[in-house]
Write a structure and sequence with these properties.
With about 220 residues, the protein is an alpha/beta fold. The protein has helices at about 30-40, 60-70, 90-95, 100, 110-115, 165-175, 190-195; strands at about 5, 15, 20-25, 50-55, 75-85, 120-125, 130-135, 145-150, 175-185, 200-205, 215-220.
């Protein structure tokens, strides 16, 4: 499948798949979307604790890199697990401008190491941040009561509807600890209903630029 590097509306880059007319991040702003959906609406619910994060769709590494940068501000120690079935090539990563746009040149080596890191092995990126990348299909995840937070950043339901089903969200529900949180850019009614069907308490939140709403789901045990 053809892949192109494009610049989104906030100046940050993403990968565009012309055959699907789909991107790894919002064309309205890759960094803006990541910060709004996953950091502001997810990570910022936590502070001064040890947490474990699961990312569904490690992709370009943008969400993990921003999380790494944000962790010290929140006094968080993070064990980060990124799941990806089809890893992005490193020569594509070299063409992305996240380090420059985030003004994080001091951590360029961290961003590169996240992508060079071997799969299936946990690595300490810093004393407060460890990363494990798993090359795995999402329906094969079998973690139970493990994560505090899930970044659900799969390709959209328009092109991959099988990733937004009750079966997938049951896997996510089981993987979360009680009171664990899942955040996603999607606000589709079918997605919200699938989450609710497996037990999530779901709320609509204001969306990132270019989207009116997004969803946040919490695992609550009555």
């Amino acid at each position: 499948m053809e892949r192109k590097i494009i610049i989104t509306s906030d100046g940050s880059s993403t990968i565009h798949l012309p055959e699907w007319n789909e991107q790894y991040h919002s064309i309205h702003g890759a960094i803006q979307e990541a910060k709004h959906v996953f950091i502001k609406s997810g990570l910022h619910l936590f502070s001064e604790q040890n947490i474990k994060i699961l990312e569904i769709g490690f992709g370009t590494g943008l969400n993990s890199f921003i999380t790494f940068l944000e962790a010290p501000k929140l006094n968080l120690t993070i064990n980060y697990v990124g799941v990806e079935a089809y890893p992005v090539l490193f020569d594509e990563i070299n063409k992305l401008n996240y380090v420059e746009e985030l003004k994080a040149q001091n951590f360029e080596s961290v961003f590169n190491e996240m992508h060079k890191q071997e799969w299936e092995l946990e690595k300490m990126i810093s004393t407060e941040f460890s990363l494990t990348k798993r090359k795995q299909f999402f329906n094969k995840i079998n973690d139970l009561d493990t994560f505090n937070l899930i970044y659900f950043d799969a390709f959209g339901a328009r092109v991959q509807p099988d990733l937004w089903t009750e079966d997938i969200f049951k896997i996510m529900y089981d993987a979360l600890k009680v009171n664990g949180v899942l955040v996603t850019y999607s606000a589709k009614g079918s997605v919200r209903r699938a989450m609710q069907a497996v037990g999530f308490k779901v709320e609509r939140l204001p969306g990132p630029p270019g989207k009116r709403e997004m969803l946040r789901a919490v695992k609550i045990i009555d």
